Amino acid sequence: MSAPADWIEKCVERFERPLTAYAWRLLGDADDARDAVQDTFLRLCRQEQGAIEDRLAEWLFTVCRNCAIDRMRKDRPMHSLSEPQLAEPSPAAPPSSAMEQAETLDGVLTALSALPPNQQECIRLKFQQGLSYQEISGITQLSVTNVGYLIHMGIKSLRARFAPVLAANAGSGMDTGVPS
Amino acid sequence: MTTSPKQDHDDALITAYALGELSGSQRDEIERLLASGTPAAAAAQREIARIRDFSALIARDLLAEVEVGPLPVLSDKQRAAIARAARPRVIVGWRTLAALASAGLAAGVLILLGLPGDAPPAASTASSAVAKSAEGDERLDAVNQLHERQLSERQKDLSLQVQAASAQPAINEALRAAEKKTARRAELEQATDQLADRKRVLALGGKPGAATPASPAPQDAAERSAVALAEPAPAVPASSSVAAPFAQAAGAPLARADGRAKGALTASAAPTVPAAAAALPPVSAPFAAAPALAAAVRPAAAAAPAPMLSGKAPARPVAHADKAAAAGPPAAAAGQGGELKELASAGPPTQQDGTPVLAAGMPVSGIPIPHGNAAIATLRRCLDAGTLPPAALVDLPQLISAWSGPLAGPLGDAPAAMTISVGDCPWDASHQLARIAVRTRAAAPSAPPAEQIVLVIDASAAMAGDERLPLIQRGAEHLLTQLRGGDQVAVVVAADQVRVLDAGSGIGQRARLRAGIAALAAGGSARIADGIELATRIAHDHLLPLGVNQVILCSAGQGMAGSAVALAAQPLAQDGISLSVMAVGHDHPEQGVLEGLAAKGHGRFAYITTAAAAEQQFAALLALPPLVVVRDAVLQLAINPARVASYHVLGDSSAEPGAMVAGGASPAGAAAALRPDVLTADQQLVALVELVPVGSPEAVAREANKTDEPARLEAQGVELISVTLRGLDSAGTPIAPLVARFAGAVEHGFGAEAPSISRGSAGHTAAAGSASVAGSAAVADFALALSHPRESQGLWPRILGEARAASRGGLAGGEELVELVTRASQLSSGAHMP
Prior knowledge:
heterodimer; A: mainly alpha; Arc Repressor Mutant, subunit A; B: 6-stranded mixed β-sheet
């Protein structure tokens, strides 16, 4: 027995963009990301709805991650996973306007891209996909404690990076949010 | 600003609390702090508020990226492909295909089988199956699903009844009802499978029913147990050759007048065999006996072993019988009352070793194939540490195999040699033990091929401790010294970051690698899957087509998700790269995962506890490259129901309730043990099967408890049991099935007291029978006592006696066995019970 078509359709509708965003960040290539997401949904079609429905998001992201890793393995030249996979923005290039940066999408995304890949991944899964530590642990194969630690360190780094912005906000009466 | 790890840990807790991720005591602790009214509480509250505000900012922008940001979307073709895959399909099941393919053959086959003219149940079933196939798969599937649901519900009800131990008649009634409900379905499955098998025979040019005659097995008259040697079977589906000796017994239920003809349970087991084994000849039932009954019994018996099977608790009949006998009335009570009392007292431990299987219901089972030395290493380590090993880590098949001594290898090109010995069961005089020994052929001697080795060293925090990373470092460094010119090696370090140790190039690479390994320190998370993935890519990129290519995972296994690692390792097999595992660490919850990984990776598994073992095991990786002799190997045990009432493959962990195999749930138990495995060169394994012969008091009592007409299988066929090895060779071609048969008579019949057996007594003398059976029995008794320490408190003197007798009888490693049993018995009587 496989999953019913209407359920698959709803899943595609709901998860296509989140999965594509996730796969795109992992792979850095739009076509590869599409293929990984397609593979994910094709695998979903072979599942029993009842068997995974209560952990659907975790299942989809786990499979998507595995599909992405498969693609990386097949298509890419060997390189150490410790190498930065995304260009690191220059720390000496502060935003021209702190307030503007805080208000733009690119601000957080750019700062996020400077974090180590595992922190990026956990933060995205937490704040972009709304998954719990437990679910992220299931997807990334890290322990829950590790997930918590990575998210904490990621937030800490981002807050430090946004300190000027937040300090400016503080000047306008807002809490700075800068770690003391 | 740098912070200490402790501060980071505390801060991470605050962050987790702010994000609503804490629970239990940790949350309470934070809330107590916040409510304390101290300056620290105020600071924590401010920090939590900031984290929440900042998190909201991050979430807002990240969500915007998904909702409105530029993202690649699936193409129309991709969407269409998904929609096609999601579309309901008409599934042509294997049963249906078999039925359709066999439709034209049904009548002829039945005639060849010599069945009576009036349509027996199975024959009419065959027609019915074909007719149903013609009506459509959905209908058949629906019927099957309905029956499965009904059976499942019935089994749940039955489990509840059994737990309450309230009524034997109710249990029997429930089982009969379940049996009737499933009989129809089983008939369909059996008939279609039989017909499909016959068709395969015909397609190969064989004659249906013209099975290979049984060769008389050599017997040593001086030994109480006879020994059967394996013989290569003709390259026809082994189902026919195995079926031959018991063909008439198999036919018996078909002609039964009570209308309770039962299909072959293995028919339902067959689809549970993973796809890799699908190409093999079907695991068919040599005895077309009462599968539905077994299907009903197995899961139910897992919850409550006794009532259908014997007057004793079945999983370890002896241990409980012994204990009960010492305790008094429950075991002394014969018949149904005694059964109920024992049933009530039989606890979960009895389930851990599986339950006896009615031979008439499930005449075919599987034999687990153990790998590695983890069980014996764990046993030694725990006893050295002054404690008994955790029951979950007592691997009975592995322990029996570890004390098997040198076995004779095969002659000629045969992949393996198999022998069957049958002797007394030391814990129950009315039972017998069949010892099945398998030895694969040796690796062909030749010039050592070049090696490509990729070490994956887990350097996470879980590897901290003298008995972990330092042992791996020692072994890996030793391995490097053993490599020859032309060999290749790479070292992947898996911790927070996954990286390759850079040894530069030119002279001194080896020394630099050794230095790099020696400098590793444990810390951070375990990214084993990523490490395997990287190692896989390296191994593929530098593959030595004529060499030995290995990836070796060195890990404590903690925090490792087996599925992810297995997935990462999957591509290795495509290029013939083996994956071995060197495991370290005291508390090893992932041992099973690691062992499974090595088994699937066609590699070696070793559990390392000392520096000497580290060097030895790492060197062994070079000295004995794991050469696969049989892939997708299945050791199929066939029991003659005319001679055996019920049986139990000792240590068949797959008999646990809920055991799953690829493809869905299986009838818990023996069928699951049919899952294919791998046999490597120079591998030897020993399995024990406890047999309850027909005519034994236990079997008679069971029959007497039945209120309906019991099955009366005619005692036809001389063989007691047979074992068939099937699988694929290294090229993926099915090997000629290898069959070993035991046809020897066991001298001590039933109704007579076995003089050397004293049930439940201390100081038991060795069971008569061959030294090999007695030796393996002693090890099994030891392992069962370790698995069920509380129930086995009073049995240690007997077990020690068995071990000593086995040692005196020449059991290889017998002295160590005696020593270990002695230490375990001392610990068991002390305060070290886990």
